[in-house]
Amino acid sequence: MPLSVRLDKKTEVLLEQTASTLKTSKAEVVKKSLSVYCARVLMEKRKRPYELIKDLLDRGGSGKGDLSARSEEILRERFRRKT
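Given the sequence above, the corresponding structure tokens read:
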């Protein structure tokens, strides 16, 4: 399926350099790049909420008895640190 795309100069140069380095066509670089990007986006969108934040949660006990009472505060702090 034919597709036309307008690229800014920086992206055009990057595409040309990549195609030259890989000794392939710009079309092949674009197809591979879109394939990888789209697959990654779709995989992220399929993740469940827990999978998106599991790296923010502790593994095992914390030794603190007030976690259930302060859970929202603790999660907000972790989100702030992650960004």
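The chain has two domains: 1-46, 48-83. Try to locate this feature in the token string yourself.
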